[in-house]
Amino acid sequence: MLIEIDDMILTRIHENRDKMARNDFLIVPKAKKTLDEAVKESCAYSVLWDGRETYVVKGKGTSCSVNLHNRSCSSRVWDLTGIPCAHGVTAIQKARHNVFNYVDKCYLKDTYMRCYSHCLDVIRGEDFWEDVEGDPILPPLIVKQLRGRPKKMRRREGWEGIVSSGKKTRVKTTSRKMHCGLCRMEGHKRDKCPDKHLYEVQPKKTKGRQKTKQPASDPMEEVTEEVQLQEQEILTGEDEMMNETLVHMEQTQEETQEEHDAVTNNGMKFMPTPSLRKHTSNGYTPPASTHPSVPQQAKKNTPRKSVKFFAPPRPKKN
User: Fold this and answer.
1) Helices and strands in the chain, H and E counts
2) Angle at which helices 219-236 and 238-264 cross, to 10°
3) Are 53 and 67 in contact (CB under 8 A)?
4) Distance of CA 253 to CAs 240, 250, 257, 263, Å?
5) In sequence order, what are the beta bridge partners of 171?
6) Are the beta carbons of 105 and 115 closer than 8 angstroms?
7) Which tens digit of pLDDT belongs to each residue from 211-260?
8) CA 42 to CA 87: how far, in whole Å?
């Protein structure tokens, strides 16, 4: 693993050095990109000079003071990054100076090249390493993971006042005395109250109608009740009256049915009409038959044609 790390750093140093040597910029590419954005943003600002080293930059509802000698701005962007902000670029352009001269030295190309000027020495293989006296370096211990779901709650101290009981946590009740919800006495709850039977608690009403269960009736009682009703009807004469009304209703129903049949069948029988034939030069063609109850609709804007009727031939007498 040590040899792999050395090979990675060795290639990284010369690749970055060669990449920067091919660029023609005075500063590194990332700093140049930030500076270009500040130059574009500076077009929206106006600047005022106090005649010495301080400039007042206004725009976008803000006003900042810029000091070119100290290379600082009241927005503190230039102070923290070392790259002129939009306010600083506006003041630099007002003074007719070069913007790259006010960038911090750590972003210059020369500084970058000096950092990557040194190279690492090549490490020989493990077979050529010399033995060194001392304790052998052991790998770190592998902690075995316990079974089950890991605990999320930490172990609390006794002075914290919270005791964990299963999944829930409860506060210690040593300083607080519990009272019963019924008798308001100490030492027990309402579930274990000795006088619980004295306090009648009405059951909660359920929504909707409750179906009342009807008791099952005895078949012998129903038979006896029917017999008593029949005897009472015979004594009062209600049974005979009911029979007479039923017979009268049957007779009236038969009479109405007969009258209805007589009205519907009183000589009203549909007979087929004789077929009318149309006379033409080629022969006779019968018209389409229609039911007498269904009238034919006359066609609109059509002239009537003359139709010749004839009588059917009579049979000859022998």
Assistant:
1) 7, 8
2) 80
3) yes
4) 20, 5, 6, 16
5) 162
6) no
7) 565 665 677 788 788 888 878 777 777 777 878 888 888 888 888 888 87
8) 7
